[in-house]
Write a structure and sequence with these properties.
Layout: H1 16-19, H2 25-38, H3 41-56, H4 62-73, H5 79-91, E1 95-100, H6 108-125, E2 133-136, H7 144-151, H8 158-181, E3 185-187, H9 192-209, E4 216-221, H10 227-241, E5 245-250, H11 255-264, H12 275-291, E6 296-301, H13 305-317, E7 327-332, H14 337-345, E8 350-356, H15 359-372, H16 382-399
Parallel strand pairs: 1-2, 1-8, 2-3, 3-4, 4-5, 5-6, 6-7, 7-8
Helix pairs in contact: 2-16, 3-15, 4-15, 6-8, 7-9, 10-12, 12-13
Bound molecules: flavin-adenine dinucleotide.
């Protein structure tokens, strides 16, 4: 059964004082203004289109983006600039997963830059509890078209064979560094038409580097109807071949794109038939991972309170302690602070996924966040609701006499 419809669920995440303790009134006001703007799907569409046009025309829009949406969802343009946020979160017991957020790059120089940047993060994270993991998008170090060809088992020409060899060398260099420094790294999941290629490369690295513990993690998008079978297959192989696995569970960020392509190319969409099926599979995957916690390092990347509650309850039922080193919770920076900070307050391992990078390169990521936070059927987004509640609480608490606070 899905965790979603159970109204008698305990609410672990309602304390807005804990949720926003790191935000002063000015910061709260800025978030409120931004989430109110993002409530309007029309504005979000216009913003996305205008931003793309402005970039193409080389208009100087970086400063405006940086002061608004970028400030909410990204930690800085460079690794150094991001350290302020890392330290700030660390003080509240929240770890940071630094993500060098450059997407859609195509040149060898870009790929080598991303590799160098990820290795830099690994070195900063070494022995640093404030940065317990790192992450990598494979399209940051390989051409999308190459991954598509590998995915569809297209015959590669000589130049592409060399490109694949170079990609493997790049991946291996990163994974080896992660292994040597004992800093787990997870591979993000992307579109289904390159995901088999990502899966097989991540599995190769897991087999190579996860002999003693899970250093390499892969990501499963539970909006796909085939992921439970994939998870079971991976566990079976890991037990047979004696290696550890790392699993980040998410619902998935490319649903519209997936459905559109499947429709246009006339194949069965890889996406579940409805939201509830995604929710059921997410919770089922949580159960399977926790039941195999001896060989799995799990990271639940979700803002869904019911699924997070399901995970807490399942840990309790299986006698898995709150701060078990193989269970992590994670939310995106700028979202669901109520889940993040309340979990940290209860002693769970929790991290924020912290994108950073030049403003222009982070735009695809920022647009996905804006779309995710638009109004659903006229409802207030969950972020907006929590911020309004905290504003009210602060106003009310200021009115109370000191003794009754
Ligand atoms: C730490 C972290 C790491 C992440 N890494 C990745 C990654 O590597 N790859 C990636 O793709 N995403 C990634 N994401 C983004 C993630 O997929 C979205 O944030 C997530 O989908 C939002 O869902 P939710 O679990 O917060 O819950 P909810 O808000 O309850 O669920 C919304 C999600 O449900 C699914 N859904 C909605 N409607 C339907 C429908 N009709 N049918 C089927 N499914 C539906 C969609 O996935 C939608 O995004 C990551 C998120 C976090 C927090």
């Amino acid at each position: 059964m899905s965790s979603q419809k159970n109204n008698s669920q305990p609410t672990y995440f309602a304390n807005t004082e804990i949720a926003f303790k790191n935000k002063d009134n000015g910061e709260l006001k800025h978030s409120l203004w931004l989430f109110k703007l993002m409530q309007n799907p029309f504005l979000v569409k216009v913003f996305s289109k205008l931003t793309l046009i402005a970039i193409k025309l080389h208009l100087p829009i970086s400063a405006a983006v940086k002061a608004t949406i970028y400030k909410q969802f990204c930690s800085g343009e460079t690794l150094d600039e991001s350290q302020k946020v890392v330290k700030h979160l660390g003080k509240s017991g929240v770890g940071s997963i630094l993500d060098y957020s450059v997407e859609g790059k195509e040149s060898i120089e870009d790929f080598e830059n991303t590799k160098a940047e990820v290795i830099k993060i690994i070195h900063i994270a070494k022995g640093n509890p404030a940065i317990p993991y790192t992450s990598l998008k494979l399209t940051g170090i390989a051409r999308h078209v190459l991954l598509e060809k590998i995915n569809s088992h297209h015959e590669l020409d000589e130049a592409e064979k060399k490109e694949k060899k170079d990609l493997l060398a790049r991946m291996d260099e990163i994974c080896k560094e992660a292994f040597t420094c004992n800093v787990p790294i997870y591979f993000d999941a992307e579109e289904s038409w390159i995901q088999d290629a990502i899966d097989s490369l991540a599995e190769l690295m897991m087999r190579r580097y996860n002999r003693e513990s899970a250093i390499i993690l892969t990501t499963l998008q539970m909006y796909r109807w085939d992921r439970i079978d994939y998870l079971k297959k991976l566990i079976w192989e890991a037990r047979e071949e004696k290696f550890f696995i790392g699993i980040k569970l998410v619902r998935g960020a490319y649903m519209e794109r997936e459905n559109k392509r499947a429709f246009e190319c006339a194949y069965r969409s890889p996406i579940q038939k409805d939201k509830i099926s995604t929710d059921i599979d997410f919770d089922k995957a949580v159960d399977i991972c926790l039941e195999n916690i001896d060989i799995i390092k799990l990271c639940a990347g979700t803002h869904n309170e019911a699924s997070t509650t399901h995970l807490l309850e399942k840990m309790k039922a299986l006698g898995i302690r709150n701060n078990h080193p193989n269970v992590y919770f994670s939310q995106l920076y700028g979202m669901s602070d109520n889940i993040t900070f309340n979990l940290a307050d209860m002693g769970y391992n929790v991290t924020k996924y912290l994108p950073y990078g030049p403003v222009k390169s982070t735009l695809p990521y920022l647009m996905r966040r804006a779309e995710e936070n638009t109004a659903i059927a006229g409802q207030l987004s969950r972020e907006l609701k929590m911020i309004l509640e905290e504003k009210e609480r602060r106003k009310f608490s200021k009115m109370l006499p000191a003794a009754s606070k």
